[in-house]
Amino acid sequence: MTKPLSVVELRQRFPQDFVWGVATSAFQIEGAARADGKGPSIWDEFCRVPGAIADGGNGDVACDHYHRLEADLDLIADLGVTAYRFSISWPRVQPLGAGAVNPHGLAFYERLVDGLLARRIRPYATLYHWDLPAELQRRDGGWLARDTAYRFADYARIVAERLGDRVVSIATHNEPWVSAVLGYERGVFAPGVKDRRIAYQASHHLLLSHGLALQAIRQTRARADVGIVLNMSPVYPATDSDLDAAHARLEDGRLIRWYADALFKGHYPADIIEHLGADAPRLEPGDAELIAQRCDFLGVNYYHPTVSSSANPASPASNGAAVTDMGWEVAPHRLAELLMRLHRDYRLPPVFITENGAAYRDSVVGGRVEDEQRRQYIESHLIAVADAIDRGVEVRGYFVWSLMDNFEWAEGYRKRFGIVHVDYATLRRTLKSSALWYQSLLRLPA
Ligand code: FCB
Known about the structure:
Elements: H1 7-12, E1 19-23, H2 26-29, H3 42-46, H4 69-79, E2 83-87, H5 90-93, H6 103-118, E3 122-128, H7 134-140, H8 146-163, E4 169-174, H9 176-185, H10 196-218, E5 225-231, E6 235-237, H11 242-264, H12 270-276, H13 287-291, E7 297-301, E8 306-308, H14 332-345, E9 351-356, H15 372-390, E10 395-401, E11 420-423, E12 428-431, H16 433-442
Parallel strand pairs: 1-2, 1-10, 2-3, 3-4, 4-5, 5-7, 6-8, 7-9, 9-10
Antiparallel strand pairs: 11-12
Bound molecules: beta-D-fucopyranose (FCB).
Beta-D-fucopyranose is lined by residues 25, 28, 174-175, 178, 231, 301, 355, 401, 408-409, 417.
């Protein structure tokens, strides 16, 4: 149990220039799936596969953010955050993933960025939060194709040329492990492929595309910091048996070291290459160096630890633990441990917690949403971040996932992560009590 703190005490544990934000992603909130020249993404198509989405939902309307931009910007400003993390939909900008640019798409993100700046909120952009232009998947297998990495670098250049003078930060990818493993190995996310060899080749091309995009962005006049966002779910053995320890080591390699070693050490971990055998990806000369170029920041998304055993090599909770509505274990101290471990094992750039938050079953009662569990989740994880800062980890900012309830991928609209409630029948937004608390923390004089 963490000791309860007042908002004043909590705020005092963070540096004055700490970045306080909320996060979303394009497909999960925008809707307007076919508006103004947007092309289809692999998620638009995946949502139409019977049984792929738990509640049969899709991204056609979502939170209708595309049409409610100004009101949503006011909502974000009202929270008192200093930063907003959003993603750009590649098929809105380049409907076919290559060639022609859709001017309406770029104009939307320009309005978003300028609207944030006008409200004194710093824009943190992510180029890829899983919505690959469907045409690239159809044409040559999406991230299986090396060419997709080059198309991504073109797209990165287009965005950087237009917005790079105003966004403060550009992340290339959000959670490449999810794109590769859930999308191409387990097939539970778009594009729904189930093939380990393809998944690892895809993961290599995702990382390669990150390196190519860093180069492309740095060749423009963009002033934004550039980096990447990784999902970091630290792995623990379920028991102290040697067998569980071996499973945990392997899972840690697949989930954390595969990405962090490639980015910050310049090579994939040898034990995982050996484990993959014939399924290991093919690299070309120079790939490793491209991937390991200097990042200006690392984004860490943390929700829960992973518990490994022979029965289940990657469970999101240990037996009997307190869990959220996703079944994810609530373990804030694991976030502090994770940050310390990364700090110890890698030469890291400054770190941002780019996502952290929880799904709980909320309801509006008399115009209010009391989500004390979510508030406690956020508070306890902020304390963990402060602990890591005290121990020397350079954490520069924290973004709550999420600004508002939204399309939670294969779970559809059943899982609510927002600090703002969305009534999907009316699209009305209501600040939950966690949002009011976050607001009170952020509005304190620095
Ligand atoms: C992360 C995703 C984000 C959201 C949260 C709950 O893996 O980046 O889009 O779905 O999980």
